[in-house]
Prior knowledge:
Two copies of one chain form a homodimer.
Chain A: H1 2-12, H2 19-25, H3 30-37, H4 40-60, H5 67-84, H6 86-94, H7 105-116, H8 119-125, H9 131-153, H10 162-179
Helix pairs in contact in A: 1-4, 1-6, 2-3, 3-4, 4-5, 4-6, 4-7, 5-6, 5-8, 5-9, 5-10, 9-10
The first copy, chain A, binds a DNA duplex through residues 18-20, 28-32, 34-35, 39-40.
Amino acid sequence: MIETARGIIAANGLRSLKVRDVAEAADCSIGSVYNEFGDFDGLILTVNRETVQALTARLVAVPAEDPVRQLHGLAEAYLTFAADHANLLRSLFEHRMEDDRPFPEDILKMVMQAFALMHEPMVRLLPDRKPEEVALLARMMFSAVHGIISLGLEERMVAVPPEKLRQQLAQFVDTHLAGLGIAVDKPRDGEV
Amino acid sequence: MIETARGIIAANGLRSLKVRDVAEAADCSIGSVYNEFGDFDGLILTVNRETVQALTARLVAVPAEDPVRQLHGLAEAYLTFAADHANLLRSLFEHRMEDDRPFPEDILKMVMQAFALMHEPMVRLLPDRKPEEVALLARMMFSAVHGIISLGLEERMVAVPPEKLRQQLAQFVDTHLAGLGIAVDKPRDGEV
DNA sequence: ATACATTTTGAACAATGTTCATTTTCAACC
DNA sequence: GGTTGAAAATGAACATTGTTCAAAATGTAT
Lengths: 192, 192
C-alpha cells in the first residue's frame, strides 16, 4: 500500500496521488486506507518518512576517512538520490499539511540528522572554530547543496543533466572549502 | 481579483486558495474567474508572474558600482523578498501544473533573467574566465543562495531568524568569493 | 426598437478527500 | 459447534472544490 503510493508519487508526482487509486491498487477499500493512515496526509507522511530514511541511509554510508572526500561523497550521494527520486524528494520538501498541523516531530528530527551529517567532517576540517559556528557553516553548506541540486534538477526550468550537475557540485564544494581556507589541490576520483 | 488571490496565497499559502473565495471577494461569479484566467492554474500563474516581476524589480534595483557589493546586495534583496513574501515565492517555485502542461515560457524567461543578474558582476570579478564558465558559476551561486534562503526560512523545519540568516548569507557570499580567488577583506555596511 | 454580439451568471457536474453505519472477520468462551 | 463480542473492513453517502455551459444579462450597432 505504501509501496503503491510511493510508486505513484515517484512516477507522476504528489499531485497525482489519489486515495482511490491506492485503494484499488492495494485491492482494498477506501476506508481501509483511512483506518491505516488516519487521513491522506498520513499516507503521504508515511511515504515521506521512508524517503528521509532512505536518503539518510545513503548519506550515512558515505566513507568517513578523509573529511574532504566525505563532503564530496555526501554531496554526490545527495545528488544521486535526488536524481533517482526527484518526485519523492519534492514530496518531502514541498508538501504542506492541511490547516496548520505541525510538521511531524520524527521526520523533522531525521531531516536534521541528515543535515548534521556534514557537521562532523567540517569539525575535522575546522578544528579551531567554535562548534556552533561550524554547525552553522555545515547547515549552510547543506542548504546550498540542496539548492543547487533542487534547482538544477527542476525540469520546469532548464534542467541541467545530472552528469553536468555532478561536476558543478564537486566544483562548488571545492570552491567553498577553499574559501574556508581549506586546501584542496589533489584531484579526487572521477573528477574532470 | 488578482489582488485577492495574492492576498490569500500570501496569508495562508497556495493550498488555501479557492476559486469560490476569490469570486466572492471580487464580488463576481465563479464563471467570471474562468473567463478571465481560463482555469485555476491560470489564476495562480498570473499571481506567480507578478511575483517574479516584483522580485526581479528588487534585484534590478541593486546598485552595480562595485561587483562584490552588488552580489551581496542581490543576495540580501532576495532574502528580504523571500522573508516578506515567503508564500508567494513558494507558490512560484513549488506549484506544479495539471497533467504535464508546460511551464509558461514567459515566466521561465523572467526567472532566467533573475538568475542572470548575478552574471554581470561575476564577469567583472572573473575577467579571465570563459563566459560560459562564469555563467555556470553564477547560476550555481544563485541556486546556492536560493537553497540557503528557502531552507532557512522554512517554518516547518527550524526556521532561522531573518536577521541571523542575513549574516549567514553575507558570510556565505564572502566565503564563496574567496574560494573563487577574489579578495574581500574590507567589511561592508551593516556587517557584524 | 430590433437584432446580434459579448459578457456574466450560477446551477449542475466531476473529481476527490472524508465519514460512519453496516457487514464481515475472527478469536474466545461455553 | 454455536454464541458472543470485539476488531477490522467495507463502500455508499457526504463535503469540498475545480470545471462546464446553457441561459440570462448586458452592450452595441443599425
